[in-house]
Amino acid sequence: MKRRLHFVVDPMGWLCISVVFGIWLYNTFFIPKLVLLPHYNEGHIPWVIVACYFIASAFCLAALLRAATADPGRLPVDPHIPHSEREQWELCNKCNLMRPKRSHHCSRCGHCVRRMDHHCPWINNCVGEDNHWLFLQLCFYTQVLSSFTLVLDFCQYYYFQPLTGLDQDKFTTRHELALLRLSTLTGLVMFGGMSSLFYTQMMGVLSDTTTIEKMAHFSNETIISKRTWQWALAEVCGTHWKLLWFIPLRNRKPIHASAYSRSPV
After folding, report:
1. Are strands 111-113 and 104-106 parallel, antiparallel or unpaired?
2. 262 Cβ neighbours under 8 A, 6+ residues apart
3. Could you give the C-alpha distances from 223 to 105, 130, 161, 181, 235, in angstroms and in order?
4. CA–CA dist 65, 60 (Å, integer)
5. What pLDDT is attached to residue 221?
6. Across 37-46, 77-86, 171-180, 238-247, which has the greatest mean pLDDT?
């Protein structure tokens, strides 16, 4: 089924996602050129490490693009509401449209989003019911790529043997002090920030509570969830197959179909 694309006209969001893309570009091209490929060519590291690095980078980019362009769960202007579900709907006081409960109006996007978690400027999009799984993948693969980069930087300083086909003094002056230290700094910032964000997001998924609901100080009855962690993640990712939880290039189908569940993302 055709995927629905969603673009937000926000110059600040464009700037934020450009910064994220620039960091990915730096780690995907400069680090392999300076560290990964030269040591592979001299037999210091196996080809499996090189392949894993580029696979993690590709999955990170795919999750970023999908999370930034996927429809988070925008509600139709004239939704069909079955009589049996009318009590689960309410009127938005900002756009004057009916929406299911737990939906929220995003002032940045200008419309209501089903089970909206928050609006993320770093992907220039809302995080809602239909793209929450992609946002989790983005956090996960950013941690993997950042940790991979930090390990390579550490090995370059303390473990790898000097490259025989390279002027070490020239390399240190032009590259190591600037590019590799910048890579280490960005890796630490990205890994620390994404680890904290991924933890809070996972806690919200497992407790069936969005970030907006946490900020609104919902009662304990709302926070406590009787679902198992497998069922909670399956509901967010749209499948019970655990391997598919890590694949961004697929469609998501809601496990619980309802009148306001739209076509898969």
Report:
1. antiparallel
2. 4, 71, 73, 76, 130
3. 21, 21, 52, 42, 17
4. 9
5. 45
6. 238-247
DSSP secondary structure of 93-135: TTT--EEETT-EEETTTTEEETT--EEETTTTEEE-TTTHHHH
Rounded Cα distance, 171 and 165, in Å? 11
Determine the pLDDT at residue 79. 75
Active-site annotation holder among 60, 106, 112, 120: 120
Whole-prediction pTM: 0.86
Question: What SS3 class is residue 260?
Answer: coil
Please identify which residue in the block is written with the tokens 């400069």: 30
Q: Which of 134-143, 213-222, 256-265 has the lowest mean pLDDT?
A: 256-265
Give the bridge partners for 118, in sequence order: 127
Burial class (CB in 10 A: 0-12, 13-18, 19+), 87: exposed
Q: Could you confirm whether 139 is annotated as catalytic?
A: no
